[in-house]
């Protein structure tokens, strides 16, 4: 369990003070991670770079606009977000990665290392900055981990959401110009959002329904494909019968490292083995698991190939569960909004790869992959922690769609709902469990 007693802005300020950062350059994919800090201590940010953001509420950053660099893709969701952000922050600068499309899981720094590093170096050089006073190269403070390299003005790198390589490919070239400080831990980036989502009772309800239908018995070996922070693996470990084992895979080494640490903290590490694995080419023999599941992963890969791989590695008679976002159904905000705004914000973010699945075709695809008795349970996940990172992530997308007058109306509606104790948001997911039939060869 991640404590929430200290707001993230206060944690970051404590880290700045601990590291002796008078004013540091900051780079992140997730503006929501620094919005509170920008309001709390704007003078402590020498320059601010948003690298291929897929969500952005520009309002908190208006006073810092002249110090903001937006690195956006040329196509897709990130391109739209960066373009809208630049229009609403006219004093900022925008750099476009020509020919590049960057969904939320894009490995942008690995794909465009020279361009991203070059843009950061050029931008920060014009803004000055002071070197930090570090007494060690690594550490942990206020629940945030840090590691430093290089010399020069401080450049603080916050985690990406899902990018497998994070900032790693650019750290060496950036360290030629800066003291590069890489932050991590459960309060930042994708880990914070995945953990916050997993605390929502309705999301845990979806997970528990999934586990009920998988129904692993004593000694069962269960595979999780795309485990992220390991939140669902810890939930399953607490209810897995004696002798059971969970093998949790992800292709993101950053998330795997954080997942291992959280499992250790929760006291369930002995029941979960975290390992590298790609959903489209699982590194396991045929029929090597009793059951398998994958949650909000098949949107971001070749879904049909991943389903075939799930069927291949599960024994005949074993069960396979899949949950994906539903971009074909409306999301809902319990806010008193004008219809013009409601129409805009009821459409969920269209965050799905070309070969991914995030609609009702999931059920047909599972049958086509060879599964029998596919039992669907489309579900709503309700969020009501408006100060939590997963709420901020979803609200930032809605706010990025609104003009100035609509933003005022939105904030008034949120304040009214918060005051009446009725503030909440719900978004749909498609979910199903099927059985690999006995006596039928795998794909």
Task: Give me the oligomer status.
Answer: single chain
What characterizes the major β-sheet? 9 strands, mixed
Tell me the fraction of residues in β-strands, as a range. Answer: 15-25%
Please report the first level of CATH classification, the CATH class of the largest domain. Answer: Alpha Beta
Our measurement of the CA-to-CA distance between the termini, rounded to an integer number of angstroms, reads: 39 Å
Briefly note the structural class of the backbone: alpha/beta
CATH fold-level topology of the largest domain: Rossmann fold
* Helical content (DSSP H or I, runs of 4+): 25-40%
Task: Report the CATH architecture of the largest domain.
Answer: 3-Layer(aba) Sandwich
| Unreliable stretches | none
Average pLDDT score: 95
Overall, the morphology is globular
What is the strand and helix layout of this fold?
Layout (H helix, E strand, L loop, with lengths): L7 H12 L4 E5 L3 H9 L4 E7 L16 E8 H13 L4 E9 L6 H4 L1 H13 L12 E4 L2 E7 L3 E4 L10 H8 L3 E6 L4 H11 L1 H14 L6 E5 L5 H7 L7 E6 L2 H14 L5 E5 L12 E7 L7 H11 E12 L6 E2 L5 H7 L15 H8 L3 E5 L2 E5 L5 H12 L3 H17 L4 E11 L8
Parallel strand pairs: 1-2, 1-7, 2-3, 3-4, 7-8, 9-10, 9-12, 10-11, 12-13
Antiparallel strand pairs: 5-6, 6-8, 13-17, 14-17, 15-17, 16-17
Helix pairs in contact: 1-2, 5-6
Short description:
This protein is of the alpha/beta class and 443 residues long.
Protein model, in words:
There is one protein chain. The protein has 443 residues and is of the alpha/beta class. The protein folds into two domains: 8-187, Rossmann fold; 192-435, Vaccinia Virus protein VP39 (Rossmann fold, 3-Layer(aba) Sandwich), CATH 3.40.50. Helices cover 36% and strands 24% of the residues. The chain has helices at 8-19, 32-40, 76-88, 108-111, 113-125, 168-175, 189-199, 201-214, 231-237, 253-266, 303-313, 339-345, 361-368, 389-400, 404-420, and strands at residues 24-28, 45-51, 68-75, 93-101, 138-141, 144-150, 154-157, 179-184, 221-225, 245-250, 272-276, 289-295, 314-325, 332-333, 372-376, 379-383, 425-435. The strands form two sheets. Strands 9, 10, 11, 12, 13, 14, 15, 16 and 17 form a nine-stranded mixed beta sheet that branches. Helix 10 links the parallel strand 10 (245-250) and strand 11 (272-276). Helix 1 crosses helix 2 and helix 5 crosses helix 6 (168-175). The chain is globular, with a radius of gyration of 22 Å.
